[in-house]
Specification:
- The chain is an alpha/beta fold and 301 residues long.
- It has one domain (20-300): Alpha-Beta Barrel (TIM Barrel).
- It has eleven helices and ten strands.
- Strands 1-2-5-6-7-8-9-10 form an eight-stranded mixed beta sheet, with helices on both faces. A two-stranded parallel sheet has the order 3-4.
- Helix 4 runs parallel beside helix 5 and helix 5 (120-133) runs parallel beside helix 6.
- The termini are far apart.
């Protein structure tokens, strides 16, 4: 029994409940993912929005396998020794994106601390294949932190994704218990460097709430992200995947999310998504259009 399993489990409130996926489009998306031997963070991380997103034929592709080299206390993805890289995966991802007819796609991955480049070249290959097979699709990457992988970030940025996302996940005080393999200020520097390398790429980051953070700590994270010129911030409710994971310390009410969104907009983010069910790639396509329009309006001022 882990230390987390001794915690009292809070009852999930009505505003966080979702319907089970039953639509034909959902099953079509599931079949396409299976037929192409792909992984999605939707399924691997037990995302509560999978029914809605897959019913709209939106799926967040997870590359570099389905086994992570880290063991974050919030994440349901398997931890262990990963398999060898699949050289055909980028081509299959490109084909799946084209077959789904996506206008916008999110590509994420497990952490691959075992690889010299952390998987950066594989990210670049996936971007290139999507550009080749689905040239009208805009691309958002949600990458690991590439900790101690010199030059990895530059490889991904050179491939020119439209959006570069890297999540802080939580406030710095909780990193030791929630995200022990990562470093808060390293993640901030990564986001800052993306903008230095290519100011045209939108940057994005998100956190979960309900892990035991305080409001002032969340506000400080907003300030830290704005100091690195991050364009888009997401805030969503943490949900405990299994009893072995970090417990939910609090269910944040919808009006509190509204307050966070208002505060973030006041700090200068071009785009903010803050609701109980917000996740990094939830409504990513529609949000990208809003983000692009917000930048255009800003440039006209």
């Amino acid at each position: 029994m882990t230390v987390f399993e001794t915690q009292v489990k809070l009852q999930k409130p009505e505003w966080i409940r979702v319907k089970a996926p039953i639509s034909a489009a959902y099953h079509e998306t599931a079949k396409l993912i299976k037929d192409h031997k792909l992984h999605t963070v939707c399924a691997e991380a037990a995302c509560p929005n999978i029914g809605e997103c897959w019913s709209k034929k939106h799926a967040t592709m997870m590359i570099l396998g389905d086994i992570c080299t880290r063991a974050c206390a919030f994440c349901n993805i398997k931890t262990g020794r990963p398999d060898l890289l699949d050289p055909h995966e980028p081509e299959r991802v490109g084909h799946a994106v084209a077959k789904l007819g996506l206008s916008h796609v999110v590509i994420t991955s497990v952490d691959r601390d075992d690889l010299d480049d952390g998987g950066a070249n594989h990210f670049a290959e996936v971007i290139n294949q999507i550009r080749l097979q689905a040239p009208l699709t805009t691309i958002e990457v949600l990458t690991p932190d590439f900790l101690r992988k010199e030059g990895a970030l530059e490889i991904v940025v050179r491939a020119k994704p439209d959006v570069y996302n890297h999540n802080l996940e939580t406030v710095p005080r909780l990193y030791g218990s929630v995200r022990p393999g990562a470093r808060y200020f390293h993640s901030l520097r990564l986001l800052d460097k993306v903008k230095q390398l290519d100011p045209t790429i939108f940057t994005k980051s998100g956190i979960m709430v309900g892990l035991g953070e305080t409001k002032p700590e969340v506000h400080q994270v907003m300030d830290d992200l704005r100091a690195t010129n991050v364009d888009f911030m997401t805030i969503g409710q943490y949900l405990q995947p299994t009893p072995k994971h970090h417990p939910v310390m609090d269910f944040i009410k919808p009006d509190e999310f509204d307050s966070y969104a208002s505060m973030a907009r006041g700090k200068g983010f071009l785009m903010v998504a803050a609701t109980p069910l917000t996740r990094s790639s939830y409504h990513a396509g529609a949000d990208f259009e809003k983000l692009r329009n917000a930048r255009a309006a800003q440039l006209k001022q």
